[in-house]
From TrEMBL:
Protein name as catalogued: DNA-binding transcriptional regulator, MerR family
Keyword Cell inner membrane: no
Keywords, comma-separated and alphabetical: DNA-binding, Transcription, Transcription regulation
SUPFAM superfamilies xref list: Putative DNA-binding domain
Source organism (scientific name): Amycolatopsis xylanica
Keyword Transcription regulation: yes
UniProt-recorded Gene Ontology molecular function terms: DNA binding; DNA-binding transcription factor activity
Domain HTH merR-type: 1-68
SMART domains assigned: HTH_MERR
Amino acid sequence: MRIGELARRAGTTTRALRFYEAQGLLTAPRTANGYRDYGEDEFRLVREILTLQAAGLSLDDTRPFVDCLRTGHDAGDACPASVEVYQRKLAEVDACLDRLNAVREGLLTKLAGALARQPGPCGVEE
């Protein structure tokens, strides 16, 4: 299939596919006249990349998954390097959640203090 059809089927743009190619994530077999001629394997790689990016992984994070599929595995996360990416990304998310929870607790404390200083229904501080 040509690049436009692959982009349409995968739900992305031809520009993105060319970028993936430039980054070494996607190879473009060429026909005799120089047109890119993608097959189902390339479609599968692009879908894997898009799914992983939708889950919060960077384009560079998708590399081990693509490599895993290229080696013949049925799933991009069947290889240890892919599992390591999941573990690292989860640690990053957990650290962000910890920071957000600390900010939330601080805001709750500030709000409680501000509410305690508000006048009561009769206009007198309680």
